[in-house]
Design goal:
D-Maltodextrin-Binding Protein, domain 2
Length: 238
């Protein structure tokens, strides 16, 4: 198996789906405290589980990005992979994939609970935009049922519940069954400006644990410590 993206935000995304499904938490969203929450025994159990999974990954896969993971699946070097739904077309392209007709898709599994980390960014209007009215009109057009049906029929992912729950939606792309199952259990991480720095720290340290530079327990303690440093420097504890 392999996971995309091992060195970046994708690792954080996939790891957090696992963390939450085991019953772990990132932090206290009210106090912004991380220590003894992220790195409690549940968090460390998840880190041990994650590091143990690496024995089933190809040598060198800690350096895989999204393209490398897709290529490994296309060439039959791995039997399972984790990635974002939007990357499915290359897996089913007979010109690119040796096993295009043998690949299927499923959501990340349930453990004690079931959560799937949200990938991607929401579409919003910047408070600094000089064209708020035009942007709002675009959003109104974009989320209209007519446009969303066309988008879905092109093999893309609709944001309208009425479309996702319509059985026709399942016929438009083989991953739509995963989208439908995942939407009700989507969960997002830190909704603060420092989210990217927090995610990068987590990905780099988890990756180092995969390489044996830290034990899983040390990795979670270090992530918690670094996260609180980031939050303190940003003024959340003032």
């Amino acid at each position: 198996m392999a996971s995309a993206h091992t060195l970046g935000g994708g690792l954080t995304d996939v790891f957090l789906g696992c963390l939450w499904s085991f019953g772990g938490e990132l932090w206290d969203p009210e106090t912004k405290r991380v220590k003894s929450i992220l790195n409690n025994e549940v968090g460390k159990e998840v880190a041990r589980f994650w590091v143990d999974l690496y024995q089933f990954c190809p040598p060198g896969s800690t350096n895989y990005g999204m393209d490398e993971v897709n290529t490994a699946m296309q060439q039959g070097l791995i039997a399972m992979m984790t990635t974002y739904l939007a990357f499915y077309p290359g897996l089913l392209d007979p010109d690119l994939s040796l096993y295009w007709d043998k690949i299927d898709f499923c959501p990340t599994p349930r453990e004690k609970e079931w959560w799937v980390q949200l990938g991607g960014q929401g579409m919003s209007i910047s408070a600094y935009s000089p064209h708020k009215e035009e942007a709002l009109k675009f959003l109104e057009w974009w989320i209209s049922p007519e446009v969303q049906w066309k988008w879905a029929q092109a093999g893309m992912f609709s944001c309208l519940k009425s479309i996702v729950e319509d059985d026709q939606y399942l016929d438009f792309a083989p991953v739509n069954k995963v989208a439908r199952a995942s939407y009700p259990v989507l969960r997002d991480y830190w909704e603060i400006p420092e989210y990217n720095e927090m995610g990068t720290v987590m990905a780099e340290i988890i990756n180092a644990a995969l390489l044996g530079r830290y034990t899983p327990e040390e990795a979670m303690d270090l992530i918690a410590e670094r996260h609180e440093v980031i939050l303190e420097m940003a003024g959340y504890y003032d």
